[in-house]
From TrEMBL:
GO terms for biological process: formaldehyde catabolic process. Its EC number is 1.1.1.284. The keyword tRNA processing does not apply. It is an enzyme of class 1 (oxidoreductase). SMART domains: PKS_ER. This is S-(hydroxymethyl)glutathione dehydrogenase. The lineage of its organism: Eukaryota, Fungi, Dikarya, Ascomycota, Pezizomycotina. SUPFAM superfamilies: GroES-like, NAD(P)-binding Rossmann-fold domains. It comes from Lasiosphaeris hirsuta. PROSITE patterns: ADH_ZINC (PS00059). Its cofactor is Zn(2+). Residues 17-374 form the Enoyl reductase (ER) domain. Belongs to the zinc-containing alcohol dehydrogenase family. Class-III subfamily. GO terms for cellular component: cytosol. It catalyses: S-nitrosoglutathione + NADH + H(+) = S-(hydroxysulfenamide)glutathione + NAD(+); a secondary alcohol + NAD(+) = a ketone + NADH + H(+); a primary alcohol + NAD(+) = an aldehyde + NADH + H(+); S-(hydroxymethyl)glutathione + NADP(+) = S-formylglutathione + NADPH + H(+).
Amino acid sequence: TAGKTITCKAAIAWEAGKELSYEDVEVLPPRAGEVRIEIYYTGVCHTDAYTLSGKDPEGAFPVILGHEGAGIVESVGEGVTNVKVGDHVVALYTPECGECKFCKSGKTNLCGKIRATQGKGVMPDGTSRFRARGQDILHFMGTSTFSQYTVVADISVVAVQPDAPMDRTCLLGCGITTGYGAARITAAAEEGSNLAIFGAGCVGLSVVQGAVAQKAGKIIVVDVNPAKEEWAFKFGATHFVNPTKLPEGQTIVDKLLELTDGGCDYTFDCTGNVGVMRAALEACHKGWGQSIIIGVAAAGQEIATRPFQLVTGRVWKGCAFGGVKGRSQLPGLVGDYLAGKLKVDEFITHRKNLSQINEAFDVMKGGDCIRAVVDS
Ligand code: NAD
Ligand code: AHE
Ligand code: ZN
Ligand code: ZN
């Protein structure tokens, strides 16, 4: 198949707000510096639903969504040296070129090399590798994993241990790595520090896992869904608070200040709700507490607080992909999984086939889904 166009199935998002369409797509061969991957499994993340909804200012259609994918390299374009045919890989929506200003800064995992074309839904040379119904289909987040085959830039893929099952490693392509990295890398929470995690989905529960690995003190999960209490404790939370069940007159900020003798050392927004983001910032300890925004808020939403909150030493920050550098650090996370130090299996609550992708989106929106894994 190398060098030839492959016709396979993909889930195409033709228009914002409409269901995905499972149909034939032509996947062109990889050009120089590109890799064609046979996708075996992909997770579905809320960010896919967010872009499909039409609320993502970068959303463009028609497009093949999906950014939590694992598969095997089918062929490589000229000059590709970091992966070879047959490698088991995870697609990286946060690439790592190792050469740009961002990669060399030592301060961030964001890579600038292909961000502009990635945001426009095309390969670094400005063109697409997908065709359907006689027209070009756009790429998404440099990954487009809702397809049996995809083409990505070589800096957007990492080879991982082949003995790690791909229906698990796909989840390291976003949700789990994002939360785990936010606790361990972005916050780098100190031993004994008190944390509050708003939102106990895949991302929030992964922050809890990272907090346990950092030997945090209090690990307080805040969620409006009472069913999340059991999930929170399963991953190592020490406390669970449902903000809708507080006594009359007590706010979630009051409650967290009371539980932590004046405020948390680190808080995490894993909801994407800007009101929650404000509470998370204000629940930080005066003088040093840091609040980390992970949730993706819809277009037009803005955060607000009194500047005095920052004047008095609270810090507002955020991260993408948990601050993890995919090519350097993902094999280490897969190693942690294989060594039994990182839970992954536990996150899988639903399984679907690619032809049932719309059902995967539906279950994701229900309160009992942590992650749906899709078999292509
Ligand atoms: P999820 O929907 O599975 O989990 C969100 C949780 O928040 C749910 O349990 C829900 O009950 C809870 N919640 C909703 N409103 C709340 C409120 N007012 N107070 C407390 N809890 C509330 O989502 P997820 O897959 O874990 O993703 C979380 C967010 O992170 C999404 O916005 C997603 O788009 C974003 N995300 C960001 C990155 C990144 O790199 N920055 C990566 C992955 C996901
Ligand atoms: N395109 C949106 C922003 C979406 C966003 O923030 N994406 C995160 C990853 S979410 C994964 O589930 C991200 O990687 N951000 C950094 C980046 O460079 O996109 C918008 O609002 O324009
Ligand atoms: Zn995601
Ligand atoms: Zn770079």
